[in-house]
Specification:
The chain has helices at residues 21-26, 34-43, 124-133, 135-161, 164-181, 196-203, 207-219, 235-242; strands at residues 12-13, 16-17, 45-50, 55-57, 65-71, 74-79, 85-91, 110-113, 117-123, 185-186, 189-191, 223-226, 229-232. With 253 residues, it is an alpha+beta fold. Residues 162-236 form the HTH crp-type domain.
């Protein structure tokens, strides 16, 4: 882990400061004032670069911060005693990893990187201060937690009722839309740097079953997955196959 922390500095384009990934995500729910954007920028402390397949928080740790993904992909996961792993969420740029975990004594699951990640953290006292000072930011953080709950419910439906192919199709639809809302897609093409083993751990499938389902989606001309990039060729048909209804993400798309 890089030991040289720094504060987040929002990039500029044509003399205009661009919103950080967290602010861009919140814009799917509320318009933010300049004061709100500056408060979010100032809240992001200790920006660090962390390598791929490293733990950020381990199960049992005492959380003191809210972590924010600025670049890269991470996940929450839990290992069973026999070594089997279940990925319980995928975390993308702009995602809050663990709000407000600092209210709990210990973390119930581990938080780890899937790729190299640029990470910032918001101290507990800072989170409490900015949500007290701004009703808009308070609503945005509540919105984020509620959407996370909706995503978990959809994952439960996938694990309990969708077929293997439907699970993958639904996940592809969800990730594509989440990345689109953050301005991180190129038309129908987006980053997808997870392995088939990762997909299996997230969707409760063996790697062999994941491969067969991917071949079925490819064979149907619905998706392409190559070079850590996902391309959706027929979004309407993919959504129909997955029974994907995007309203659970509550985004202005």
């Amino acid at each position: 882990m890089d030991a040289r922390p720094e504060r987040f500095v929002a990039p500029r384009q044509q003399g205009r400061r661009l919103a950080n990934p967290l602010a861009r995500k919140f814009l799917n729910f509320r318009q933010l004032s300049r004061t709100d954007e500056e408060a979010l920028d100032n809240a992001l402390e200790r920006v660090q670069r962390i390598g791929s397949r490293e733990d950020i928080v381990q199960q049992g740790d005492a959380p003191r911060f809210v972590h924010v993904i600025l670049e890269g992909w991470a996940c929450h996961y839990k290992h069973l005693q026999d070594g089997r792993r279940q990925i319980t969420s995928l975390l993308l740029p702009g995602d809050l990893c663990d709000p407000p975990m600092f209210l709990l004594k210990t973390a119930g699951q581990s938080l780890g990187t899937l790729t190299a990640v640029t990470l910032a953290r918001i101290p507990a006292e800072t989170m409490q201060a900015i949500t007290t000072q701004s009703a808009t930011l308070q609503e945005c953080f509540w919105w984020d937690m509620l959407v996370r709950s909706e995503i978990q419910r959809e994952w439960t439906v996938s694990l309990g009722r969708r077929t293997a192919t439907e699970r993958l199709a639904h996940l592809f639809c969800e990730i594509s839309l989440r990345l689109k809302s953050a301005g991180m897609t190129n038309g129908v093409d987006c980053e997808f740097p997870v392995t088939q083993a990762d997909l299996g751990d997230a969707m409760g499938l063996s790697t062999v079953h994941v491969n067969r389902s991917l071949q079925e989606l490819r064979g149907g001309g619905l998706v392409g997955l190559r070079g850590k990039r996902l391309r959706i060729y027929n979004e309407e048909s993919l959504r129909a196959l997955a029974n994907f209804e995007p309203s659970y993400l509550h985004m202005n798309q």
